[in-house]
Write a structure and sequence with these properties.
- The chain has 446 residues and is mainly alpha-helical.
- The protein folds into 3 domains: 149 residues, HUPs (Rossmann fold), CATH 3.40.50; 87 residues, Alpha Horseshoe (Serine Threonine Protein Phosphatase 5, Tetratricopeptide repeat), CATH 1.25.40; 152 residues, DNA Cyclobutane Dipyrimidine Photolyase, subunit A, domain 3, CATH 1.10.579.
- It has a 5-stranded parallel beta sheet.
- Helix 11 packs antiparallel against helix 12.
- It is globular and about 70 Å long.
- It starts with 11 loop residues before the first helix and ends with a helix.
- It binds flavin-adenine dinucleotide (FAD).
- The site of flavin-adenine dinucleotide has 28 residues, from helix 5, helix 7, helix 10 and helix 12.
- This is Cryptochrome/DNA photolyase FAD-binding domain-containing protein.
- Its cofactor is FAD.
Length: 446
Protein backbone atom coordinates (compact mmCIF):
# COMPACT_ATOMS: atom_id res chain seq x y z
CA UNK A 1 0.00 0.00 0.00
CA UNK A 2 1.37 3.47 -0.86
CA UNK A 3 1.23 6.21 1.70
CA UNK A 4 0.27 9.78 0.81
CA UNK A 5 3.30 12.11 0.81
CA UNK A 6 4.27 13.82 4.06
CA UNK A 7 2.65 17.19 4.83
CA UNK A 8 5.49 18.13 7.18
CA UNK A 9 6.87 20.95 5.10
CA UNK A 10 3.56 22.28 3.88
CA UNK A 11 2.83 25.66 5.52
CA UNK A 12 -0.18 25.37 7.80
CA UNK A 13 -1.87 28.26 5.99
CA UNK A 14 -2.01 26.01 2.92
CA UNK A 15 -3.08 23.02 4.96
CA UNK A 16 -5.89 24.88 6.74
CA UNK A 17 -6.79 27.80 4.48
CA UNK A 18 -10.24 28.34 6.04
CA UNK A 19 -8.74 28.73 9.54
CA UNK A 20 -6.10 31.22 8.35
CA UNK A 21 -8.75 33.18 6.47
CA UNK A 22 -10.99 33.32 9.55
CA UNK A 23 -8.27 34.23 12.09
CA UNK A 24 -6.13 37.25 11.16
CA UNK A 25 -3.55 36.43 13.86
CA UNK A 26 -1.26 33.80 12.41
CA UNK A 27 1.57 33.97 14.94
CA UNK A 28 1.08 33.79 18.69
CA UNK A 29 3.30 35.05 21.50
CA UNK A 30 5.66 32.06 21.39
CA UNK A 31 7.46 30.23 18.62
CA UNK A 32 7.00 26.46 18.57
CA UNK A 33 9.76 23.89 18.86
CA UNK A 34 12.40 22.66 21.23
CA UNK A 35 14.99 25.34 20.49
CA UNK A 36 12.49 28.10 21.30
CA UNK A 37 11.40 26.18 24.41
CA UNK A 38 14.96 25.91 25.70
CA UNK A 39 15.49 29.65 25.10
CA UNK A 40 12.37 30.39 27.16
CA UNK A 41 13.53 27.96 29.85
CA UNK A 42 16.89 29.73 30.04
CA UNK A 43 15.03 32.96 30.94
CA UNK A 44 13.31 31.34 33.93
CA UNK A 45 13.73 33.21 37.22
CA UNK A 46 11.91 31.08 39.80
CA UNK A 47 13.09 33.07 42.81
CA UNK A 48 11.77 36.46 41.70
CA UNK A 49 8.69 34.60 40.45
CA UNK A 50 7.92 33.60 44.02
CA UNK A 51 7.67 37.29 44.97
CA UNK A 52 5.86 38.87 42.05
CA UNK A 53 4.05 36.23 39.99
CA UNK A 54 0.60 37.66 40.75
CA UNK A 55 1.47 41.00 39.17
CA UNK A 56 0.88 41.40 35.42
CA UNK A 57 4.50 42.61 35.15
CA UNK A 58 5.81 39.78 37.31
CA UNK A 59 8.43 37.21 36.32
CA UNK A 60 6.05 34.56 34.99
CA UNK A 61 7.71 31.94 32.82
CA UNK A 62 5.42 31.86 29.74
CA UNK A 63 6.42 28.23 29.39
CA UNK A 64 2.86 26.93 29.30
CA UNK A 65 2.54 26.18 25.55
CA UNK A 66 5.75 24.12 25.70
CA UNK A 67 4.54 22.24 28.77
CA UNK A 68 1.08 21.72 27.31
CA UNK A 69 2.42 20.19 24.08
CA UNK A 70 5.14 18.20 25.82
CA UNK A 71 7.99 20.11 24.19
CA UNK A 72 9.26 20.35 27.75
CA UNK A 73 8.28 17.90 30.49
CA UNK A 74 7.21 19.16 33.89
CA UNK A 75 10.09 17.22 35.40
CA UNK A 76 12.71 19.00 33.30
CA UNK A 77 11.15 22.42 33.98
CA UNK A 78 11.22 21.59 37.70
CA UNK A 79 14.88 20.51 37.44
CA UNK A 80 15.72 23.78 35.69
CA UNK A 81 13.98 25.73 38.47
CA UNK A 82 15.84 23.85 41.21
CA UNK A 83 19.15 24.46 39.42
CA UNK A 84 18.62 28.19 40.13
CA UNK A 85 18.68 27.78 43.89
CA UNK A 86 21.25 26.28 46.28
CA UNK A 87 20.71 22.56 46.85
CA UNK A 88 20.41 23.38 50.55
CA UNK A 89 17.56 25.87 49.94
CA UNK A 90 15.15 24.30 47.39
CA UNK A 91 12.31 26.16 49.11
CA UNK A 92 13.45 29.33 47.35
CA UNK A 93 11.86 27.83 44.22
CA UNK A 94 8.85 26.60 46.21
CA UNK A 95 6.18 28.77 44.62
CA UNK A 96 7.21 27.91 41.07
CA UNK A 97 7.39 24.16 41.71
CA UNK A 98 4.05 24.36 43.49
CA UNK A 99 2.49 26.05 40.43
CA UNK A 100 3.87 23.30 38.19
CA UNK A 101 2.16 20.84 40.49
CA UNK A 102 -1.23 22.33 39.54
CA UNK A 103 -0.59 21.25 35.96
CA UNK A 104 0.31 17.73 37.09
CA UNK A 105 -2.72 17.65 39.40
CA UNK A 106 -5.27 18.80 36.80
CA UNK A 107 -3.80 16.43 34.22
CA UNK A 108 -4.14 13.52 36.64
CA UNK A 109 -7.74 14.48 37.43
CA UNK A 110 -8.50 14.67 33.69
CA UNK A 111 -7.01 11.21 33.18
CA UNK A 112 -9.52 9.91 35.75
CA UNK A 113 -12.68 11.71 34.71
CA UNK A 114 -12.25 12.24 30.94
CA UNK A 115 -15.12 14.04 29.22
CA UNK A 116 -16.68 14.83 32.60
CA UNK A 117 -14.37 17.88 32.70
CA UNK A 118 -17.05 19.48 30.48
CA UNK A 119 -19.76 18.99 33.12
CA UNK A 120 -20.26 20.81 36.42
CA UNK A 121 -18.50 18.73 39.06
CA UNK A 122 -20.94 20.21 41.58
CA UNK A 123 -23.74 22.81 41.23
CA UNK A 124 -22.73 26.50 41.16
CA UNK A 125 -22.28 27.74 44.74
CA UNK A 126 -23.91 31.05 43.84
CA UNK A 127 -27.53 30.38 44.66
CA UNK A 128 -28.31 30.38 40.92
CA UNK A 129 -29.48 27.22 39.17
CA UNK A 130 -27.79 26.10 35.95
CA UNK A 131 -30.79 27.42 34.00
CA UNK A 132 -29.92 30.99 35.06
CA UNK A 133 -26.68 30.84 33.01
CA UNK A 134 -26.81 31.71 29.34
CA UNK A 135 -25.53 29.23 26.76
CA UNK A 136 -24.78 32.04 24.29
CA UNK A 137 -21.32 33.54 24.53
CA UNK A 138 -21.66 37.35 24.37
CA UNK A 139 -20.33 38.81 21.13
CA UNK A 140 -19.08 41.99 22.84
CA UNK A 141 -16.74 39.93 25.04
CA UNK A 142 -15.58 37.79 22.11
CA UNK A 143 -14.89 40.88 19.99
CA UNK A 144 -13.56 43.09 22.82
CA UNK A 145 -16.26 45.73 22.46
CA UNK A 146 -17.82 45.65 25.94
CA UNK A 147 -16.68 49.22 26.67
CA UNK A 148 -14.77 48.04 29.76
CA UNK A 149 -11.11 48.78 29.08
CA UNK A 150 -9.76 45.82 31.09
CA UNK A 151 -12.15 43.22 29.66
CA UNK A 152 -11.62 44.43 26.10
CA UNK A 153 -7.84 44.46 26.51
CA UNK A 154 -7.80 40.84 27.75
CA UNK A 155 -10.13 39.75 24.97
CA UNK A 156 -7.81 41.36 22.42
CA UNK A 157 -4.66 39.93 24.02
CA UNK A 158 -6.16 36.44 24.02
CA UNK A 159 -7.14 36.60 20.35
CA UNK A 160 -3.96 38.32 19.16
CA UNK A 161 -1.31 36.47 21.19
CA UNK A 162 -2.81 33.22 22.50
CA UNK A 163 -1.61 34.11 26.02
CA UNK A 164 -3.06 35.65 29.15
CA UNK A 165 -1.41 36.02 32.53
CA UNK A 166 -3.04 33.76 35.12
CA UNK A 167 -4.58 36.73 36.90
CA UNK A 168 -6.13 38.07 33.68
CA UNK A 169 -7.57 34.62 33.02
CA UNK A 170 -9.16 34.57 36.47
CA UNK A 171 -10.51 38.11 36.16
CA UNK A 172 -11.90 37.54 32.69
CA UNK A 173 -13.44 34.17 33.57
CA UNK A 174 -15.05 35.64 36.69
CA UNK A 175 -16.53 38.49 34.63
CA UNK A 176 -17.94 36.06 32.05
CA UNK A 177 -19.52 33.68 34.55
CA UNK A 178 -20.53 35.91 37.45
CA UNK A 179 -21.18 39.37 35.98
CA UNK A 180 -22.65 38.21 32.69
CA UNK A 181 -24.01 34.91 34.01
CA UNK A 182 -22.78 32.86 31.08
CA UNK A 183 -22.11 29.16 31.61
CA UNK A 184 -18.41 28.51 32.12
CA UNK A 185 -18.27 25.97 29.29
CA UNK A 186 -18.83 28.81 26.79
CA UNK A 187 -15.82 30.71 28.14
CA UNK A 188 -13.72 27.55 28.30
CA UNK A 189 -14.41 26.82 24.61
CA UNK A 190 -13.44 30.39 23.68
CA UNK A 191 -10.15 30.06 25.59
CA UNK A 192 -9.45 26.62 24.07
CA UNK A 193 -9.69 28.08 20.60
CA UNK A 194 -7.12 30.80 21.23
CA UNK A 195 -4.72 29.84 24.04
CA UNK A 196 -1.49 28.30 22.78
CA UNK A 197 -1.53 26.28 26.01
CA UNK A 198 -5.25 25.43 25.89
CA UNK A 199 -6.14 21.96 27.08
CA UNK A 200 -9.34 20.58 28.59
CA UNK A 201 -7.60 19.60 31.82
CA UNK A 202 -6.02 22.90 32.89
CA UNK A 203 -8.49 25.12 31.11
CA UNK A 204 -11.78 23.54 32.14
CA UNK A 205 -10.74 22.75 35.68
CA UNK A 206 -9.60 26.33 36.24
CA UNK A 207 -12.91 27.56 34.79
CA UNK A 208 -14.75 25.23 37.18
CA UNK A 209 -12.68 26.69 40.03
CA UNK A 210 -13.63 30.28 39.13
CA UNK A 211 -17.27 29.34 38.51
CA UNK A 212 -17.58 27.50 41.87
CA UNK A 213 -18.60 24.21 40.28
CA UNK A 214 -15.44 22.73 41.82
CA UNK A 215 -14.81 24.99 44.78
CA UNK A 216 -16.73 26.02 47.88
CA UNK A 217 -17.31 29.59 46.68
CA UNK A 218 -17.15 31.64 43.45
CA UNK A 219 -14.03 33.64 42.55
CA UNK A 220 -14.65 37.41 42.60
CA UNK A 221 -12.38 40.42 42.19
CA UNK A 222 -12.83 44.14 42.44
CA UNK A 223 -11.21 47.32 41.19
CA UNK A 224 -8.84 47.52 44.15
CA UNK A 225 -7.56 44.02 43.41
CA UNK A 226 -7.13 44.86 39.72
CA UNK A 227 -5.17 48.02 40.47
CA UNK A 228 -2.99 46.24 43.02
CA UNK A 229 -1.73 43.76 40.40
CA UNK A 230 -2.21 45.67 37.13
CA UNK A 231 -1.63 49.27 38.19
CA UNK A 232 -3.59 52.00 36.42
CA UNK A 233 -3.08 50.74 32.85
CA UNK A 234 -6.74 49.86 32.28
CA UNK A 235 -8.56 52.36 34.48
CA UNK A 236 -6.48 55.21 33.03
CA UNK A 237 -8.13 54.70 29.66
CA UNK A 238 -11.52 53.36 30.70
CA UNK A 239 -14.57 55.51 29.95
CA UNK A 240 -16.26 54.03 33.04
CA UNK A 241 -13.41 54.82 35.42
CA UNK A 242 -15.16 57.80 36.97
CA UNK A 243 -18.64 56.29 37.06
CA UNK A 244 -20.31 53.00 36.21
CA UNK A 245 -17.36 50.62 36.72
CA UNK A 246 -18.99 47.29 37.68
CA UNK A 247 -15.91 46.28 39.68
CA UNK A 248 -15.74 49.38 41.86
CA UNK A 249 -17.30 47.89 44.99
CA UNK A 250 -16.47 45.93 48.12
CA UNK A 251 -16.54 42.16 47.93
CA UNK A 252 -19.61 42.09 50.17
CA UNK A 253 -21.47 44.48 47.85
CA UNK A 254 -20.44 42.54 44.74
CA UNK A 255 -21.49 39.29 46.30
CA UNK A 256 -24.84 40.77 47.27
CA UNK A 257 -25.36 42.14 43.76
CA UNK A 258 -24.23 39.07 41.81
CA UNK A 259 -25.31 36.06 43.85
CA UNK A 260 -28.42 34.71 45.45
CA UNK A 261 -26.63 33.26 48.43
CA UNK A 262 -23.44 31.36 49.06
CA UNK A 263 -24.48 27.83 48.27
CA UNK A 264 -26.13 25.78 45.57
CA UNK A 265 -29.67 26.50 44.47
CA UNK A 266 -32.09 23.79 45.70
CA UNK A 267 -32.21 20.74 43.43
CA UNK A 268 -28.87 21.47 41.73
CA UNK A 269 -26.93 18.48 40.51
CA UNK A 270 -23.22 17.74 40.36
CA UNK A 271 -21.69 15.18 38.02
CA UNK A 272 -18.53 14.11 39.84
CA UNK A 273 -18.51 11.34 42.39
CA UNK A 274 -15.45 12.37 44.47
CA UNK A 275 -14.77 8.70 45.23
CA UNK A 276 -13.39 8.46 41.68
CA UNK A 277 -10.51 10.69 42.77
CA UNK A 278 -9.85 9.15 46.14
CA UNK A 279 -7.18 6.48 45.60
CA UNK A 280 -5.59 6.86 42.18
CA UNK A 281 -2.39 4.96 41.33
CA UNK A 282 0.38 7.48 40.65
CA UNK A 283 2.93 5.33 38.86
CA UNK A 284 3.05 4.93 35.08
CA UNK A 285 3.16 1.43 33.62
CA UNK A 286 6.71 0.08 33.18
CA UNK A 287 8.61 0.86 29.96
CA UNK A 288 7.85 -1.74 27.27
CA UNK A 289 10.51 -3.81 25.53
CA UNK A 290 11.66 -2.54 22.17
CA UNK A 291 10.76 -4.78 19.22
CA UNK A 292 12.41 -4.69 15.79
CA UNK A 293 9.45 -3.70 13.62
CA UNK A 294 7.63 -0.95 15.57
CA UNK A 295 6.57 2.37 14.11
CA UNK A 296 6.27 5.48 16.30
CA UNK A 297 3.13 7.57 16.64
CA UNK A 298 3.81 11.12 17.89
CA UNK A 299 0.73 13.02 19.12
CA UNK A 300 0.14 16.59 20.23
CA UNK A 301 0.83 16.01 23.92
CA UNK A 302 4.52 15.20 23.37
CA UNK A 303 6.01 17.18 20.49
CA UNK A 304 9.66 16.90 21.41
CA UNK A 305 12.79 15.31 19.96
CA UNK A 306 13.25 13.87 23.47
CA UNK A 307 10.01 11.86 22.95
CA UNK A 308 10.45 8.54 24.73
CA UNK A 309 9.30 6.33 21.84
CA UNK A 310 11.34 8.29 19.28
CA UNK A 311 14.34 7.80 21.55
CA UNK A 312 13.64 4.08 21.95
CA UNK A 313 13.28 3.67 18.16
CA UNK A 314 15.67 6.20 16.61
CA UNK A 315 15.79 4.36 13.28
CA UNK A 316 12.14 3.43 12.87
CA UNK A 317 9.56 5.41 10.86
CA UNK A 318 7.43 7.85 12.84
CA UNK A 319 4.12 9.56 12.08
CA UNK A 320 2.17 12.60 13.28
CA UNK A 321 -1.47 13.04 12.24
CA UNK A 322 -3.35 16.35 12.23
CA UNK A 323 -6.63 15.42 13.92
CA UNK A 324 -9.05 17.23 11.60
CA UNK A 325 -12.07 16.39 13.73
CA UNK A 326 -10.57 17.75 16.92
CA UNK A 327 -9.26 20.91 15.24
CA UNK A 328 -12.78 21.54 13.98
CA UNK A 329 -14.42 20.71 17.29
CA UNK A 330 -12.14 23.09 19.24
CA UNK A 331 -12.14 25.68 16.41
CA UNK A 332 -8.38 25.84 16.91
CA UNK A 333 -7.04 29.26 15.91
CA UNK A 334 -4.41 29.92 13.24
CA UNK A 335 -1.76 31.04 15.76
CA UNK A 336 -2.15 27.78 17.62
CA UNK A 337 -1.89 25.70 14.43
CA UNK A 338 1.26 27.65 13.57
CA UNK A 339 2.73 26.84 16.99
CA UNK A 340 1.98 23.13 16.60
CA UNK A 341 3.33 23.13 13.04
CA UNK A 342 6.59 24.71 14.24
CA UNK A 343 6.95 21.97 16.86
CA UNK A 344 6.15 19.18 14.41
CA UNK A 345 8.45 20.44 11.69
CA UNK A 346 11.46 19.88 13.98
CA UNK A 347 10.64 16.20 14.40
CA UNK A 348 11.61 13.24 12.21
CA UNK A 349 8.00 12.42 11.37
CA UNK A 350 5.86 11.72 8.34
CA UNK A 351 2.87 14.05 8.63
CA UNK A 352 -0.64 12.99 7.64
CA UNK A 353 -4.11 14.35 8.40
CA UNK A 354 -7.61 13.01 8.96
CA UNK A 355 -8.90 10.24 11.18
CA UNK A 356 -6.00 9.55 13.54
CA UNK A 357 -6.55 5.85 14.21
CA UNK A 358 -7.12 5.17 10.51
CA UNK A 359 -4.02 7.11 9.41
CA UNK A 360 -1.72 5.59 12.06
CA UNK A 361 -2.97 2.10 11.14
CA UNK A 362 -2.34 2.79 7.43
CA UNK A 363 1.15 4.08 8.23
CA UNK A 364 1.97 0.98 10.30
CA UNK A 365 0.67 -1.34 7.58
CA UNK A 366 2.67 0.47 4.92
CA UNK A 367 5.78 -0.28 6.97
CA UNK A 368 4.76 -3.89 7.62
CA UNK A 369 4.46 -3.26 11.34
CA UNK A 370 2.02 -4.62 13.95
CA UNK A 371 3.46 -2.59 16.83
CA UNK A 372 2.85 1.11 17.39
CA UNK A 373 4.96 2.91 20.00
CA UNK A 374 3.77 6.15 21.53
CA UNK A 375 3.68 8.18 24.76
CA UNK A 376 0.81 8.60 27.25
CA UNK A 377 -1.96 11.17 27.15
CA UNK A 378 -4.72 11.84 29.69
CA UNK A 379 -7.20 12.52 26.88
CA UNK A 380 -10.18 10.17 26.40
CA UNK A 381 -9.62 10.69 22.67
CA UNK A 382 -6.20 9.04 23.04
CA UNK A 383 -7.80 6.09 24.86
CA UNK A 384 -10.33 5.72 22.04
CA UNK A 385 -7.61 5.83 19.35
CA UNK A 386 -5.55 3.19 21.19
CA UNK A 387 -8.66 1.00 21.53
CA UNK A 388 -9.40 1.38 17.80
CA UNK A 389 -5.82 0.41 16.90
CA UNK A 390 -5.92 -2.60 19.23
CA UNK A 391 -9.21 -3.72 17.74
CA UNK A 392 -7.44 -3.76 14.36
CA UNK A 393 -4.91 -6.21 15.81
CA UNK A 394 -2.07 -3.76 16.57
CA UNK A 395 -0.07 -3.79 19.78
CA UNK A 396 0.22 -0.28 21.19
CA UNK A 397 3.23 0.36 23.38
CA UNK A 398 3.01 3.38 25.68
CA UNK A 399 6.47 4.64 26.67
CA UNK A 400 6.23 6.47 30.00
CA UNK A 401 7.41 10.04 30.51
CA UNK A 402 9.42 11.18 33.54
CA UNK A 403 7.25 11.47 36.63
CA UNK A 404 6.89 14.92 38.20
CA UNK A 405 5.85 13.72 41.64
CA UNK A 406 6.02 10.18 43.01
CA UNK A 407 4.15 9.06 46.09
CA UNK A 408 4.32 6.19 48.57
CA UNK A 409 0.56 5.76 48.43
CA UNK A 410 -2.19 5.94 45.79
CA UNK A 411 -3.02 9.60 45.23
CA UNK A 412 -5.93 11.35 46.84
CA UNK A 413 -6.90 13.79 44.08
CA UNK A 414 -10.04 15.18 45.66
CA UNK A 415 -8.28 18.41 46.60
CA UNK A 416 -4.95 19.76 45.41
CA UNK A 417 -3.63 20.23 48.99
CA UNK A 418 -3.86 16.52 49.76
CA UNK A 419 -2.28 15.52 46.46
CA UNK A 420 0.54 18.02 47.10
CA UNK A 421 1.24 16.67 50.60
CA UNK A 422 1.74 13.26 48.99
CA UNK A 423 4.05 14.25 46.12
CA UNK A 424 5.87 17.38 47.31
CA UNK A 425 9.04 15.61 48.57
CA UNK A 426 9.48 13.91 45.22
CA UNK A 427 8.52 17.07 43.30
CA UNK A 428 11.57 18.68 44.93
CA UNK A 429 13.79 15.89 43.66
CA UNK A 430 13.92 13.87 46.91
CA UNK A 431 12.73 10.29 47.38
CA UNK A 432 8.96 10.10 47.94
CA UNK A 433 8.07 10.52 51.60
CA UNK A 434 4.98 9.80 53.68
CA UNK A 435 2.39 12.57 53.23
CA UNK A 436 2.98 15.49 55.56
CA UNK A 437 0.15 15.78 58.07
CA UNK A 438 -2.55 18.32 57.36
CA UNK A 439 -2.06 21.54 59.29
CA UNK A 440 -5.06 21.03 61.56
CA UNK A 441 -4.00 17.46 62.33
CA UNK A 442 -0.42 18.55 63.00
CA UNK A 443 -1.72 21.06 65.54
CA UNK A 444 -3.98 18.53 67.20
CA UNK A 445 -1.19 16.00 67.55
CA UNK A 446 1.34 18.61 68.67
C1 LIG B 1 -9.76 30.38 33.49
C2 LIG B 1 -8.36 29.80 33.37
C3 LIG B 1 -8.03 29.02 32.29
C4 LIG B 1 -6.75 28.45 32.20
N1 LIG B 1 -6.44 27.65 31.11
C5 LIG B 1 -5.24 27.02 31.05
C6 LIG B 1 -4.93 26.16 29.97
O1 LIG B 1 -5.74 25.90 29.08
N2 LIG B 1 -3.69 25.58 29.95
C7 LIG B 1 -2.77 25.82 30.93
O2 LIG B 1 -1.66 25.27 30.85
N3 LIG B 1 -3.06 26.60 31.98
C8 LIG B 1 -4.26 27.21 32.07
N4 LIG B 1 -4.53 28.05 33.13
C9 LIG B 1 -3.57 28.12 34.25
C10 LIG B 1 -2.57 29.28 34.19
O3 LIG B 1 -3.25 30.49 34.00
C11 LIG B 1 -1.53 29.12 33.08
O4 LIG B 1 -0.92 27.85 33.17
C12 LIG B 1 -0.43 30.15 33.21
O5 LIG B 1 -0.98 31.45 33.26
C13 LIG B 1 0.51 30.03 32.04
O6 LIG B 1 1.45 31.06 32.04
P1 LIG B 1 2.95 30.83 32.49
O7 LIG B 1 3.53 29.69 31.76
O8 LIG B 1 3.62 32.16 32.36
O9 LIG B 1 2.74 30.42 34.00
P2 LIG B 1 3.70 30.47 35.24
O10 LIG B 1 3.03 31.31 36.27
O11 LIG B 1 5.08 30.80 34.88
O12 LIG B 1 3.63 28.98 35.81
C14 LIG B 1 4.52 27.95 35.35
C15 LIG B 1 3.70 26.77 34.90
O13 LIG B 1 2.94 26.26 35.99
C16 LIG B 1 1.70 25.75 35.52
N5 LIG B 1 0.61 26.54 36.13
C17 LIG B 1 0.69 27.76 36.69
N6 LIG B 1 -0.51 28.14 37.18
C18 LIG B 1 -1.36 27.13 36.92
C19 LIG B 1 -2.74 26.89 37.18
N7 LIG B 1 -3.51 27.77 37.83
N8 LIG B 1 -3.29 25.76 36.74
C20 LIG B 1 -2.55 24.82 36.10
N9 LIG B 1 -1.23 24.98 35.83
C21 LIG B 1 -0.65 26.10 36.24
C22 LIG B 1 1.70 25.95 34.01
O14 LIG B 1 2.13 24.77 33.40
C23 LIG B 1 2.69 27.09 33.83
O15 LIG B 1 3.28 27.13 32.56
C24 LIG B 1 -5.81 28.65 33.24
C25 LIG B 1 -6.16 29.47 34.32
C26 LIG B 1 -7.42 30.02 34.40
C27 LIG B 1 -7.77 30.87 35.59
Amino acid sequence: MTLPGSLRDMPPAELFPEVYARDPHHQGFARGGRAAALEALARLDPVTYGRDRSSLDGHVSRLSPYIRHGVLTLAEVRDAALAHVPATAPSRAWKFVNELSWHDYFTRVYAQVGELVWQNFQPYQTGWPQSAYSYDFPEDIAQGTSGLACIDAWSRELRETGYLHNHSRMWLASYVVHHRRVWWQGGASWFLTHLLDGDPANNNLNWQWVASTWRAYPYLWNRGNLQKYAGQRYCAECPLASGGCPFDATYAALSERLFRGKKAAPGGEGHLDPARLQAVPWEPPPAPEAVPDAVVWVHGDRLSPTHEALTAYPDRPAVFVWDDDLLRQWQVSAKRQTFIHECVSELPVHVLRGDVAGQVAAFARAHGSRTIATTPSPSPRFTAIVAALESEGFTVQVWPEPVFGASLTPLDLRVHGDYWRQVSASAFGKPPAPPKPRRAQAKASG
